[in-house]
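I had to read the description of the data format several times before I understood it. In essence, backbone conformation is discretised, so a fold becomes a row of integers matching the chain in length. I therefore recommend that a typical entry be quoted early in the introduction. For illustration, here is how one protein appears when written out as sequence plus structure tokens.

***
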Amino acid sequence: METTALQSLALSYNRLGRAGLRQLLRTIPARSLRSLRSLELDSVLGDTHGDIGDTHGDTGDIGGDIGDIGGDIGGELARYLQQAGCALCHLSLAGNHLRDGDIDELARCLPGSLRSLELSANPGLGPGTFRKLRPGLGSLRMHGCGVGDLDGTTRSRSREKIQELP
């Protein structure tokens, strides 16, 4: 029997918590790294008052108490995305209590293959998110974020970085 490589993994709305998400990212087989095109992890971290499997009492956002994705699960996500051969085209992190500070590390580790980024329902994300993302995204979704009115500079930079806004 011939097996096919995993191309899409959608685990949205499963309360994995940080411990479960950390374990998941560590156990995705290396052969899937080159074939996985879509990773959907919407609302997997629970609420902002702690989450399942987390015994440290941290908040439910990816960056923990300090809003830095480089710590806690953000480091795991960064390590996953930075692996050689990562072919991810679509990443969805909607509803995970992200803040602008979380985007700093994430923006540095997005693979060149990434064309679509879903960040909706993260009200802690504001206009600064646009300035941090690399050029080449075909789609950036930020419904329900704290973007508000974009100033002229941010609007101009956004046009340069994003080819098409949904």
